[in-house]
Amino acid sequence: MEGQSYARMPRVKIRELRDDYARFELRDTDASIANALRRVMIAEVPTIAIDLVEIEVNSSVLNDEFIAHRLGLIPLTSDRAMSMRFSRDCDACDGDGQCEFCSVEFHLMAVCRNDETQDVTSSDLISSDHTVVPVDYSESAASIDASDGGGITIVKLRKGQEVKLRAIARKGIGKDHAKWSPAATVTFMYEPEIHINEDLMESLTLEEKKEWVESSPTPVFEIDQVTQQVGHFSLISLVMLELLLSIYLTYVLCDS
Ligand SMILES: [Zn+2]
């Protein structure tokens, strides 16, 4: 029983936290809890994603299904997801999934009238709810493609081509479809606890110690300039979890 309560009362220490990234230490537990957390983050945290697309006009080179699939993968801001209803549980629309409680409507209209190719991006999507909009990654990931001024490319149009559609975004979880997964990736690793055999280490010459320290692919150890003893750079702990919030599923949608 003691072991059980130990595993169920882990301690969390945030090491790094950004809008799209978190790194933390999980202590006083075992790998099963870390893995459970990882799986919940990937598959069971609800988000909002485009789930139904009605295409009115499409004279682009991509077929309707292709465009609908790309729209589904566009990350949307999902702060509202917790208060929104799942379409299947919505009694306001009898599970139709098109009412204000369980859906958000988007419109997209684009016509190319120039000789130059026109990019239709997620910035061209017009949302019926200002709290649910495509994630703008232009500031944080400007290096992905600085030339297109932000937005995820959905389709490219040449002169005379047109796309006009209506899309419905709904609440869902990653277990149903990966487009609802809030994380691009979630990984965890044990941090090793390394003990140096001091007696053996002292028997080495300074040159040998330097060689030993440099043999580590990442700088983990250092030699104290005064005492010439080998020590850790920093104290390391037990288990670490990393999660990368979805928002940046953009690699899926990056223009190739
Ligand atoms: Zn509804």
Automatic annotation (TrEMBL):
Chain segments annotated as coiled-coil in the UniProt record: none
Major location (coarse): nucleus
Subcellular location as annotated: Nucleus
Parts of the chain that traverse the membrane: 233-254
Domain DNA-directed RNA polymerase RpoA/D/Rpb3-type, first and last residues per copy: 21-236
Pfam families given in the database record: RNA_pol_A_bac (PF01000)
Gene Ontology cellular-component terms listed: RNA polymerase II, core complex; RNA polymerase IV complex; RNA polymerase V complex
Matching InterPro entries: DNA-dir_RNA_pol_30-40kDasu_CS, DNA-dir_RNA_pol_insert, DNA-dir_RNA_pol_RpoA/D/Rpb3, RBP11-like, RNAP_Rpo3/Rpb3/RPAC1, RNApol_insert_sf, Rpo3/RPB3_RNA_Pol_subunit
SMART domains to which the protein is assigned, alphabetical: RPOLD
GO biological process, one term: transcription by RNA polymerase II
Keywords: Acetylation, DNA-directed RNA polymerase, Membrane, Nucleus, Transcription, Transmembrane, Transmembrane helix
Molecular-function annotations in GO: DNA binding; DNA-directed RNA polymerase activity; protein dimerization activity
Family label: Belongs to the archaeal Rpo3/eukaryotic RPB3 RNA polymerase subunit family.
Listed name of the protein: DNA-directed RNA polymerase RpoA/D/Rpb3-type domain-containing protein
Protein species of origin: Arachis hypogaea (Peanut)
